[in-house]
Fold this sequence. Notes:
The chain is of the alpha+beta class. The protein is 41% helix and 24% strand. The strands form 2 sheets. Strands 1, 2, 3, 5, 6, 7, 9 and 10 form an 8-stranded mixed sheet that branches. A 4-stranded antiparallel sheet has the order 4-8-12-11, with no helix packed on it. A hairpin with a 3-residue loop joins β6 and β7 (146-158).
Amino acid sequence: xxxxxxxxxxxxxxxxxxxxxxxxxxxxxxxxxxxxxxxxxxxxxxxxxxxxxxxxxxxxxxxxxxxxxxxxxxxxxxxxxxxxxxxxxxxxxxxxxxxxxxxxxxxxxxxxxxxxxxxxxxxxxxxxxxxxxxxxxxxxxxxxxxxxxxxxxxxxxxxxxxxxxxxxxxxxxxxxxxxxxxxxxxxxxxxxxxxxxxxxxxxxxxxxxxxxxxxxxxxxxxxxxxxxxxxxxxxxxxxxxxxxxxxxxxxxxxxxxxxxxxxxxxxxxxxxxxxxxxxxxxxxxxxxxxxxxxxxxxxxxxxxxxxxxxxxxxxxxxxxxxxxxxxxxxxxxxxxxxxxxxxxxxxxxxxxxxxxxxxxxxxxxxxxxxxxxxxxxxxxxxxxxxxxxxxxxxxxxxxxxxxxxxxxxxxxxxxxxxxxxxxxxxxxxxxxxxxxxxxxxxxxx
Length: 445
């Protein structure tokens, strides 16, 4: 009897050890080490972490929620953002059901003994789990077999940006969660409470942006290996334009207004007007270079701020060209007046003699014969070519010459001082109209 009593424990031990080792790694079966949850040895008998819940049956429903702790960096040059998030995943594993209404928080290192989803962040460039002072992970087990698995992650995610309206742009970025290996036949991703599953994003205070709105989506990713469940958090970021107004728009506008000061300076003050024109052009060039230094040189977008700076540069350069035109016209007019003040030339004498002869003879025919084509060619007045006795090609030349004199007369500045007078009105008027179209287009279209 004693021998039988002592032999029974030796018989049962080798039977129990393999059954308790079924929770751990496959190597545990070969090594003989137990790997069950401490305190849950009876519960986890026959548990295999390599097999998902409902293996071979219905898919596992995984409900997720997010807390956005911070968005520390949004880079236009790299087109990405860096965020710290708290990711919480819930699913039910019927193999872990126990009696009672209690829930137990387990040591995070015991996650290695349980099956967990293979969730990853789509379009993530760099990611890491925080591990100070220990790994920032949470495992909580409920009596109905529900498991809460929480992680603290910092990730840098790509965000395609349209900078054509920079700095009056609104960017739409995404945070996408997807299963890496399990397709929709194995797992189903859902948001725990729809849009209420995301917290903290409405409280974010960013340096250049304001969170306009956000919403959650449930989607699928069709890959060559199957269709995988995907959850999407989409949020819109509106850039704060006040900084750029004070930094770029106001100085460039003031430089344009400064260039208009030259219109009130006389044409004879060459150094003063030249100095204002060149100084404003150089200052505007420096401002344009500085505005582009914040973005990468590889960024080839024509942005809204570049358009405005180009407009301002055009007006400043136009003011400098206006003075050059006015000064050149004034010098040409002075040169044209100089010969008239001297003695009359031979051509004038000849024309006077012809006119006197015509008056004395009182004959139109004699007037037509005596006047030469050379005098018509030199005269700046329009001549009636139809009444002249000349050949056809000469008449054509005469008509074309009259047309050219008339066209040149349209572009001839009779009074150069009027150029500044008109510029005082036209430059501000056109600049105001351009600003109205510019702001209306980029703010409302």
